[in-house]
Specification:
single chain; 7-stranded mixed sheet; two-stranded parallel sheet; alpha/beta; Spore Coat Polysaccharide Biosynthesis Protein SpsA, Chain A; 9 strands
């Protein structure tokens, strides 16, 4: 697994097969997993152990953790790319990680083991099947959650309906961080700095750009170690602001 990840970063075969001779079989797309971290040292060994061999590259974007997260990441896989990000917030971390990714497909994966890395295959299958952007959903058949509270479920559904009305989408789950997309689509969905509203912004931008979006069933588990950084009311308000802010056309200067 380490060898494949090293080859992917140093010019190994890429999934975009443009330029191949007729009759040459297309190569499988390479996959970068971007993991934002802040004091997740206890969780990383479990996460790394569950990553499928098909993952070509791991990019850990760390917010200057104080618990040895970076050292643990490197101990788990010496080929991991660690990027330090001074700007706080999940949005800044993801944007940095996406920009650093070198593979065909980018997968955003939380470090707390709430998302199952085995599901990466579902997202990749959707992208290979024609999607530009594959977004996880806990509220379609095959999805679910053992972590989300009734209050958060209600808030998420209300915000999802509002987004569908304002932006003409048909989403079932707005506030979920398990997503994947072709790297060539990054300019159209690049997230803004911020916190947990980053997924909302990405989901809306994908729709506004006219990308082919597919919802993929995903099951959200409880965080393994540590406390969640999510604040229901604060982050719910920021999601609400984002929904309306994304309805304003972005000028050329942005």
């Amino acid at each position: 697994m380490e060898t494949r990840r090293s080859q992917a970063r140093t010019g190994g075969p890429m999934g975009a097969s443009a330029g191949l001779d007729k009759g040459t079989p297309a190569t499988e797309p390479t996959i970068t997993v971007v993991v934002p971290t802040l004091n997740e040292a206890e969780n990383l060994p479990i996460l790394f152990d569950r990553l499928p061999d098909e993952v070509s590259e791991i990019v850990v974007v760390d917010g200057y953790s104080s618990d040895g997260t970076v050292e643990v990441a490197r101990a788990q896989d010496p080929s991991v790319r660690v990027v330090m990000e001074e700007q706080p917030g999940k949005g800044a971390a993801l944007a940095r990680g996406f920009a650093e990714a070198s593979c065909d497909i980018i997968v955003a994966l939380d470090a707390d083991n709430s998302a199952d890395p085995a599901e990466i295959a579902r997202f990749v299958r959707a992208l290979k099947g024609g999607a530009d952007y594959a977004k996880g959903s806990r509220f379609v058949e095959g999805g679910g959650s053992s972590d989300i509270t009734p209050l958060r479920t209600l808030g998420n559904r209300a915000l999802t309906v509002l987004t569908n009305v304002i932006h003409g989408t048909r989403y079932t789950d707005l506030c979920y961080g398990y997503n994947a997309f072709w790297k060539r689509r990054l300019p159209e969905i690049m997230p803004p700095p911020g916190g947990f509203e980053v997924e909302t912004a990405m989901n809306i931008r994908a729709a506004k750009a006219g990308l082919a979006v597919v919802e993929v069933p995903s099951f959200e588990r409880d965080r393994t170690f540590g406390e969640s950084h999510l604040n229901t009311f604060r982050d719910g308000w920021r999601v609400l602001v984002t929904i309306f802010a994304e309805a304003v056309p972005r000028g050329r200067g942005r």
